[in-house]
Design a protein that fits this description.
heterodimer; A: Gyrase A, domain 2; 3 domains; eleven-stranded mixed β-sheet; about 40% helix; globular; B: SH3 type barrels; Rossmann fold; eight-stranded mixed β-sheet; five-stranded antiparallel β-sheet; 23 strands; about 25% strand
Chain lengths: ~650, ~450
């Protein structure tokens, strides 16, 4: 069976045929061509003392090996309120995972591990969530109903997340358009995963139960940059209240993406907004590729309703095993199985994402659903073909030339699920794009995580009574809301503050500080904006803040400089000192900088003397060098005493 | 008719639904002062207020709409939910034991009840197989719903009905019996069945769940598997309670119906054998006996059903300063038996003595049990104890208070003769009074002790 087929050529060819372009080259035309559509689910931890449904402290984290006890659970799918099983639930049940929770007495109680019913909801969290809902222009519900949202991956020991809708149907205004919001919910955060190997998954319960809000948008974004902008906007809006947590993991988002004819796919837990454009770009094209694969398959295979894989166990078949991995698998007593995929030649190596092909789609599901540990498979369209006696395999499987093959291995108990998984994924290829959640990587690619859950995983929480939200409460919370981010954006523009400072200003919620300095102290807005957006940002990146440091000190510093009649240029030298020693009084800060107060005139009178001196050393030099030299000599004395540009004028006079 | 269309709604909320002609399960668009809402109207729990309407919105969440904010409503469609566990015929496998499951209610099989907003009991064999298909690998199952009541509503009538039903099944040749039961009074029923169903040739297992079966982390399925396994395959032909050993999904424990007690309001591992060890450990694969002297399974069908129960027995939980009229009132009300739950080794204050004497004179049977839960009544140590015995109070050894109440009810259901009653009370049917208390019969570890902390860290909770 001589074969001239080249997998890498096929990969390249298919990449071109679907019209894949890199994000750098892509224009709106490309996104319109594939019908790019995306929306967000932005999660934000709230800053509260306690968890949402118990009195455990919030925000205290344990190290991976720090725990006081272990509890084991298995999750079973249950019916939704409307009497349906959820697809994700059934998938998770198939995986037969044993879930181990590491409990620390400091951060988890019997509620967390589902041995005590919930306590009344944390009012502090509820009120923050209402305030943010009002800011997001959502319709506030009359009564919050706590709902159980099933999560069978074990990330919550009850098997469901207690969550309640605070508001529905809102909107935010980004630079050039409005993005509609579906809803905002208040919910408990989940466990943090420690490990997931084979059939055992380990979680830490410290983050579990912390109050979290989720803002969900409609899929109104039509290109990757818009998704990023929307995400930033929602995060900045949340932060503008000053009532949310910041730092690693305090804000995370799930990004929903589809292309025209594709399906909603959710990219889970994207930690940085800057990753969003590449991820959404690649996902939309992955779906585009899967649609092309569907067309090709439907064209090639007429009777796809009866399409079936063929398989044969290789353990007892006589063939010379050359491959090291296969030898090891046999040594481990694994079952080795060869699978025939009729008509799938040139499909396995079909382009899906940069560096990935259709075979990866199968491989990723095998890892998650059948719990096989990598490496566990070869296939007939690897760029670097594995030596596993394909000729013999073909004969055993009775393969035809248009077929593709997979050889995989694993514990005997997992083989049945694995074969079902392979067949299921291939059958889905005839349909197009499976609804799934995917895990993101920094390089912009994603892998299969779970089947996408639907509305069928909701169930009313019979342990919690409904919580009425009265008009009085909403009126009370409507007062003193911060201004809209979009209004703040326009104000910064009006002040001529350079745009490269905005992300920093909003992400650290510094707008009000800037506004106060400008309006109260009447300092030049451009100077204030760049001081915060450049100087403060630099200091934060290069120094370590003392625990007592508070941004309010920046206002106090400028007021002090004004009162002392000291030039503001000194502020950038004071900033690092204050950042590290916020308790130092301003006079001492100046002493530490060796600042001495000198009258402007006393500095200016030194110029003629220095000019003379310069001439003596460098008789034939230019005026420019003369100026620079004198500036250098006077700089230390001048900073804080005379504006440097004013001094420069005196020098060149 | 109103009830069907407006399930659970009353007062203002009902008036609004009627005004706009919108039904429960109607898909509706609602204009409110807080903005528009869209979704399906759900039934409302009867105990909730009449100021809100419950709506399931498209994303699957439920929200309440304040009726005072409603400007208009319109029904645009109708879709009633059909909550049904997929029902499948329970398959018959030759060679597997025949097990009968009696349903009495409780959370082992339950579903949502819109009337109360809580879960209600409901099940059929097919539903059970649909939800826990693993059961088919354990036994051939037949089920019967004897009645559907909450655990707290179990009482004499139910004990008797259950005992008779069990007797019939045993005569018909069943290999084991499982009783699905709410957990609150599981141990009362355990004791009652021990006394009413004597000399059983097969295991009789009571099982429940601490987390309703509508939760993914429910203990119901595993408890049921453990119970079926014990009923069908174990050699222990006693009345037992089968519930989680640890709170982890690992193994269950089989407790004697007369020595078991619910010890935590919500833990999965709430049932503990008191003053002894459990009889056995049970997993899905094996049964590991802990005690060797159990009553073994037999081939014969010589079960003895003794369905007696008097509802004229009460319990009196003593507290310091208790007044004699508390006893007088019970006697005046016609109670024939009183289980006193006394302090320490079994004491009450002297002020009660005259009332105790009056009760004794009227032929009231009085037995002393302990608030300490663990340990023996010992009324010889102090004079007061001897005084009380002289006045007619009989120490009940280390019988648990609830078990003593069940047993006295059962005894008085048979006879009024004080000597007969005393003989029945103090002759153990199955270890309700034990002759000795082993050292591992009293274990309540306390966190913070280094050795205990080490143990807790190593052993799955």
């Amino acid at each position: 069976m001589k074969d001239t087929f080249s997998a890498s050529d096929n990969y390249q060819r298919t990449k071109e045929s679907i019209g894949y372009v890199s994000r750098k080259e892509a224009t709106q035309k490309d996104y319109d061509r594939i019908g790019f559509m995306s929306g967000l689910e932005v999660h934000q931890q709230l800053f509260t003392k306690h968890k949402l449904f118990c009195k455990c402290p919030a925000g205290i984290y344990q190290k991976p090996d720090e725990y006081d006890a272990e509890v084991i659970r298995h999750m079973r799918p249950t019916l939704s309120e409307l009497g349906e099983y959820d697809g994700t639930a059934l998938m998770e049940f198939k995986t037969r995972k044993e879930i181990i929770y590491h409990l620390s007495n400091n951060t988890a109680c019997t509620y967390d591990i589902d041995d005590t019913p919930p306590f009344p909801i944390n009012r502090e969290a509820l009120e923050i969530a209402i305030r943010i809902s009002l800011l997001s222009k959502l319709n506030i519900v009359g009564e919050v109903h706590i709902t159980r949202k099933q999560y069978l991956d074990g990330s919550i020991p009850t098997g469901f997340q207690r969550t309640g809708i605070i508001g529905v149907e809102g909107e935010i205004q980004i630079k050039h358009k409005k993005i509609r919001l579906i809803q905002l919910s208040l919910e408990e955060d989940s466990c943090r995963e420690v490990s997931d190997v084979g059939h055992t998954r380990v979680y830490r319960t410290d983050r579990l139960g912390m109050p979290l809000i989720e803002t969900v948008t409609y899929p109104d974004c039509i290109n990757p940059e818009e998704v990023r902008e929307t995400c930033d906007y929602i995060r900045f809006l949340n932060r503008s209240t000053g009532l949310v947590r910041t730092g690693i993991g305090a804000g995370r988002q799930d990004v929903n993406v589809s292309c025209r004819g594709g399906s909603r796919v959710e990219i889970k837990g994207v930690a940085h907004t800057k990753w969003i454009p590449e991820l959404t770009h690649n996902e939309a094209f992955r779906q585009w590729a899967l649609l092309k694969i569907r067309d090709k398959l439907l064209n090639k295979i007429k009777d796809h309703k009866n399409w079936k894989i063929g398989s044969v166990e290789l353990n007892n078949k006589i063939f010379k095993v050359q491959n090291g991995l296969l030898k090891e698998a046999l040594l481990n007593n694994y079952t080795v199985v060869a699978v025939n995929l009729p008509g799938f030649k040139s499909i396995l190596s079909y382009f899906t994402q940069p560096g990935k092909m259709f075979a990866n789609e199968i491989e990723e599901r095998l890892k998650v659903i059948a719990c096989l540990e990598k490496p566990f498979m070869f296939h007939s369209e690897q760029f670097d073909p594995a030596d596993c006696a394909y000729d013999e395999v073909h004969a055993l499987l009775k393969s035809k030339p248009e077929d593709a093959q997979i050889v995989f291995w694993g514990p005997e108990d997992d083989i049945k699920t694995a074969l079902e998984t392979i067949e299921e994924r291939c059958l889905m290829a005839f349909e197009g794009v499976p609804n799934e959640t995917r895990k993101s990587f920094e390089d912009g690619t994603t892998i299969f995580e779970r089947v996408l859950p639907g509305a069928d995983r909701m169930y009313p929480d019979t342990d919690s009574p409904p919580i009425p939200l009265t008009n009085e409460l909403i009126d009370k919370l409507s007062k003193n809301l911060p201004s809209d981010i979009i209004d703040r954006y326009h104000q910064l523009k009006k002040w001529n503050i350079p745009e490269d400072t905005y992300t920093y200003i909003f992400s650290r919620d510094h707008f009000q500080l800037i506004e106060k300095i400008i309006l109260t102290l009447k300092i030049d807005p451009v100077y204030v904006g760049t001081f915060i957006g450049h100087t403060l940002k630099f200091v934060e990146g290069h120094y370590t803040a003392a625990e007592a440091f508070n941004y309010k000190i920046i206002f106090a510093m400028f007021r002090y400089l004004q009162q002392q009649n000291i030039e503001l240029e000194l502020a950038r030298y004071m900033m690092p000192v204050l950042y590290e020693h916020p308790k130092m009084d301003f006079d001492s800060v100046l002493d530490s900088l060796n600042f001495k107060k000198i009258k402007e005139n006393d500095i200016i009178t030194l110029i003629p003397h220095l000019k003379k001196k310069f001439c003596e050393i460098n008789q034939r030099d230019t005026n420019e060098n003369e100026g620079n030299w004198i500036m250098g000599e006077l700089r230390k004395k001048a900073i804080g005493n005379i504006a440097l540009n004013k001094l420069a004028k005196h020098i060149t006079k | 008719m109103d009830q069907d269309i407006f399930q659970g709604y009353k007062g203002d909320a009902l008036a609004v639904l009627k005004k706009y002609n919108v039904r429960v399960w109607g898909q509706s668009e609602i204009e409110t002062a807080r903005g528009p809402f869209k979704g399906t109207i759900l039934p409302r729990s009867e105990n909730d207020d009449d100021q809100h309407i419950v709506l399931k919105i498209e994303t699957g969440y439920n929200v309440g709409i304040d009726v005072t904010t409603i400007l208009s409503m319109e029904e645009t469609g109708y879709k009633k939910a059909n909550y049904k566990i997929p029902e499948k015929q329970f398959p018959f496998t030759p060679g597997l034991p025949k097990v009968k499951l009696f349903g009495t209610g409780g959370t082992i099989a339950s579903r949502l009840d819109y009337r109360t907003g809580a879960v209600i009991p409901a099940f059929s064999p097919g539903e059970l197989y649909g939800a826990v298909p693993e059961l088919a690998d354990i036994c051939n199952l037949d089920t019967e719903k004897v009645f559907a009541v909450f655990s707290e509503n179990m009482g004499p009538k139910q004990y008797i009905a259950l005992a008779k039903a069990i007797g019939k099944e045993i005569e018909n040749g069943i290999d084991g019996i499982v009783i699905g039961h709410g957990t609150d009074t599981l141990h009362h029923s355990g004791a009652a069945l021990t006394f009413m169903v004597q000399n059983s040739p097969v295991p009789i297992i009571l099982v429940g769940s601490q987390r309703s079966s509508d939760r993914p982390s429910s203990d119901a399925a595993l408890n049921l598997m453990h119970a079926m396994h014990a009923a069908g395959h174990s050699d222990i032909a006693e009345v037992m309670v089968c519930m989680f050993g640890p709170t982890s999904d690992e193994y269950g424990l089989l407790h004697k119906g007369t020595r078991v007690r619910k010890m935590h309001s919500s833990y999965r591992s709430t049932f503990r054998t008191i003053g002894d060890t459990p009889i056995a450990r049970v997993s899905r694969k094996e049964i590991i006996p802990i005690k060797k002297d159990y009553k073994p399974r037999r081939k014969d069908r010589n079960v003895k059903i003794m369905p007696y129960f008097s509802d004229k027995v009460t319990m009196l939980y003593y507290y310091p300063g208790m007044k004699p009229d508390t006893i007088d009132m019970l006697v005046d009300a016609g109670y024939k038996g009183i289980i006193i739950v006394g302090t320490g080794l079994g004491h009450v204050n002297k002020e009660l003595y005259p009332a105790i004497e009056r009760a004794h004179a009227k032929g009231v049977h009085m037995y002393m049990t302990l608030q300490t839960i663990w340990g023996y009544v010992h009324m010889f140590v102090y004079d007061t104890g001897r005084d009380m015995m002289a006045k007619g109070i009989i120490p009940a050894g280390n019988m648990l208070p609830e078990v003593a109440w069940v047993k006295l009810s059962w005894a008085i259901g048979q006879t009024d003769d004080p000597e007969e009653v005393k003989k029945i009370m103090l002759t153990p049917v199955n270890d309700e009074i034990t002759e000795r208390e082993p050292y591992n019969g009293y274990l309540v570890y306390q966190g913070g002790v280094p050795a205990v902390e080490e143990f807790v860290r190593r052993v799955h909770k």
